[in-house]
Design a protein that fits this description.
Keywords: Cell inner membrane, Cell membrane, Membrane, Protein transport, Transmembrane, Transmembrane helix, Transport. It is found in: Cell inner membrane. The chain is α+β, with helices and mostly antiparallel strands. The two termini are about 100 Å apart. The mean pLDDT is about 85.
Amino acid sequence: MTTLLFLPGDGTDWRWLRFADGMATGEGEGVPEIADAVIAVAPAEDVTLHWAELPSRSPAQAAAAARILVAEASAEPVGDLHVAVGEPDSGPGGRAVAVVSAGRMRDWLVQLAAIGVDPDAIVPASLLLPEPEQGFVRAAIAGRGLVRGASSGFADEPGFTELVTGGVALVDLDDEAREAGLIAATARPPLDLRQGAFARRRRFAIDWALVRRLVVLAGIALLLTLAVDVMRIVRLNLSADRAEMQADALARTGLPRGETVTDAGRQLDERLSRLRGPGRGFSESAAAVFAVIQAQQGAELTAMTFEPNGDLHIGLATQSEAGPTDVKRALEAAGLTVSASTFTASNGRVTGEMTVGAR
């Protein structure tokens, strides 16, 4: 359902026509009950129409070219005018260009807002008439006389009409032709004054159905992410249990046959300690001492005793007074603790004892 709402003019009040399913369904005076689409109709006497060849590549280019043409043809400053451009196929003479005072446009929108209407479009009244192939047609719509030519449109006023038509006879439209023109203009307005600064603002509407779908999808994505994390944790736990079982089985192979197994790892450490001795064990401690003494020129190992507590007592002989100190520093650098006795010099040799242990 679409309502044509005629803006008040000089000495006139609101008028309206309503269409639905391609036919007129009602008309009246005053402000109707607004429903569905509303197209406001601007009084023909307040809108000047021109036709011109304009670029069809973009509305912005067409509007810019139209403003240049209007500036050349109008006595008023173009900054005080609102210029709107019609559809590319709006007439054989080119595209329709409507010129109206910017102040008048603001007044109309204020009047419409006062009655709670934000029209889908504002159409010049004379463009509601069907475009004639030649000459001029005339009809009264909502109590207002209108004239339309192939490249003109204006209010029907005595004296002015004859001047514009140049004496060409007017064709009066019958009710059927007039209604057909109204239905066509309602379905596709040939020119909408709501352009540029007066364009209708798009209202942002929340698509709650889409919001719900997005929330559901986000929930599913979150659940999938959590499921992946849970599966990763389970897999890591299973891998850790399997590795622990393998390590336990390997540790059991190093224990004496028939030994009761309670903690294979701890029991294996105990057996290893018994086999190698306390501390770092005899083999590792002795190997470190041999390596250090072998590297020191003139140093000689004269005795070695491995104590139950893991300490290694060694007898050492060197050729110089600094020899024992060098050996002690080298053993400490190898990660051992060293305590030395008093070294004495005799027969060109410096001898004494050291106790080497694990750090």
